[in-house]
Amino acid sequence: TNPPQVAAAIQNRMFHNGYFHSRVTYDTILSGHRKARYQYLITLLQPYRFESIGFPKATNDLTSKINSIQAGSILKKGDIYTLDAVKKERTRIDQDLKEKGYIYFNPEFISVKADTVTGDHQVRAEVTVKQETPPESRKPYTIRKVFIHDDHVLENTLADTLQFGNYYLISQHKALRFDALQQGIFLKPGEQYANSNYMHTIRYMNALPIIRNANIKFSPYEKTDSLDATLYL
Known about the structure:
The chain is α/β, with parallel strands linked by helices. Helix content is 24%, strand content 30%.
C-alpha cells in the first residue's frame, strides 16, 4: 500500500465534491510482530456551494443557442459544487447543440470556470466556449444530399444510381426499393442535422429483416455549412 498516494486520492475526491480546503493526514500504527495498520484522519471543512452560474452572452449563433438553454441547467444556485455535476452540464449542452446542427461539437469544448468567493464558501461558475474550439465545431450543418448504398460490400462493382430528388440510391441488384427505405430515413435534405434523426435512421434500418447492418457517414460539402449523408446498408 502507498499511504501518501491514498491520502492524495481521498483529498482529490473530496475536492471534486466541493470540499476545497479539507485535509487528509495518516499515521502508521504498529500492532504485533511485523504488522502495521494505517489510520487516516480527514478534516472536513464547510463545502463550497454555487453562488451564481453565468452563461455566455449571445454574440453569435453558437453562444445564442447555449444562452437560450440556461434555464434547464443542472448547476443550481445553493447546490454543493461537484465535478460530476459540471460534467453532466457539459454533456447536456453538447446534446442540445447536436440536435441543432452542431454535429462536430464536443463536451470538451465547454469550460466551466469556478471562482471562489472569499470567506463565504461559495463559487461563481462561468460557462464559456473554449478558445481552441475549431471552426467546424462552431457552426450548425444542414443535410445537402443523402446517398444510399444498398450493399456496401459490393460497392466497388458496377452499380446503377437512381435519383429521387436529393436522394440517390446506389444499387447493385435493385433488391431494395427507395419508397420502402424513404420512410425510415429521418435525415432530410435541406433540414439541419439532428442527432436524434441520425439515431432514428440507424435503428429503423437495423430493424429491417433484409438488412444485416446499417452505418451512416457524414462528409462536409466543400467549404460550406452542408453535409452529405451516406447510408451503407
